[in-house]
Amino acid sequence: MRVTHIVTAFPRSADDPITPWLVELVRRQRERGLDARVLAPAYRGGPAAEPLPIPVRRFRYAPAAWETLTHDETVPDRLRRKRRYGALLPGYLLGGYRAAAQEGRRGLGPHVAHVHWPVPHALFGSSLRRAARKAGGEAGPAALVCSFYSAELSWVRSSLPWLHSLLVWSIRTADAVTAISRSTASQVEALGERSVRVVPYGSALADDGSGPEREALTSEEPIRLLFVGRLVQRKGVEVLVRALKALRREMPAQLTIVGEGEWRPAIEAVIAECQLSEHVTLTGRVPSEQLRSQYEAADVFVLPAVLDAMGDTEGLGVVLMEALGFERPVIASEVGGIVDIVRHGETGWLVPPGDAEALAKRILQVAADPAASRSVARRGRQWIREEFSWSSVLDRTDEAYAEALENAG
């Protein structure tokens, strides 16, 4: 089967941290025998040579120096900060539409156009599907799969209502629709009045076994808390910082924050306000091996997600999978797709979003009973292996492709 993934961004170098789960998906599809490739926008005219053993076509949409609409941050975030980027949108749409049509006409063409973030990329997928169908011959039926990740729904609802019709069209024109979580699926179903498959993503971080267990969480040594992720508003990291302040009134604790993003100055301001500079470490982005070490060193992993100014929140939470893969107790906010991973008291613990006191109280409870906490973490690890393994993700994706091809037939 031939598949072309249509995406907003794809790694520009071997150490580029962009969408590692998507790289892993395409890589594993190719290992399974699929002719999987990627269509993505260029960044500053490049890269000329792809850093990964995956065929990638980069479409141009502006002079090289101006091709900065994607990759470094989300397009809506970039447009909100600097409206002048809106001038790049017509070229982006035209360049992507043309490149998708060319991809559809190329050789035998793809069987499936798999669109990620369908607003506006469903336009590209439709162009590819139409061109592939016209090419005919041995290409067989061409089908369109649209995958939703929650953020695009929030953007349209809160900031881009004029794109509502395009959003609904992207749902209804697809031959199959998937969503990253049950929460996102229910929103898509309400908009498009059609069934939606839940297909999560897997972790790109290899799991070779659980990390070392500490002798006791309640010893004189500080409890080690860990957060991993992009530093953006919806992650709620400042809530965790305030929880750390409350926690330290009861027991010694240290927090490590791994990641980078535009929200870092706001987080640093809260750290300074809470006088926690000596107890919080911001590492920035780290390579995979260092990330593994951070998970292994942690006592508790925390994802304190909130609703951001656009009403967006965590679509799923791949970092929760990673932490559970290392058999670490996880605490997260009861919001968005997080509840697909964290079952309260069974695979981890949920707290109300934005409630620093409740978060601090839960960390104390986890620290007070390390044996029970480790037992929950073990169940969480087994849950991840059963429901979110790559074999499960690939099987579900294949089922979505089969549905799309049947509907397109």
Fold and architecture overview:
The chain is of the alpha/beta class and 409 residues long. Helix content is 42%, strand content 15%. Helix 4 (118-135) crosses helix 6 and helix 8 runs parallel beside helix 9 (264-273). The mean pLDDT is 90.
Q: Which terms would index this structure?
A:
alpha/beta, seven-stranded parallel β-sheet, six-stranded parallel β-sheet, 14 helices
Secondary structure blueprint with pairings:
Layout: E1 2-6, H1 20-31, E2 35-41, E3 56-59, H2 75-81, H3 89-105, E4 112-116, H4 118-135, E5 143-148, H5 151-158, H6 164-173, E6 176-179, H7 182-192, E7 197-198, E8 223-228, H8 237-247, E9 253-258, H9 264-273, E10 280-284, H10 288-297, E11 300-303, H11 318-325, E12 330-333, E13 349-351, H12 356-368, H13 370-387, H14 390-408
Parallel strand pairs: 1-2, 1-4, 2-3, 4-5, 5-6, 6-7, 8-9, 8-11, 9-10, 11-12, 12-13
Helix pairs in contact: 3-4, 4-6, 8-9, 8-12
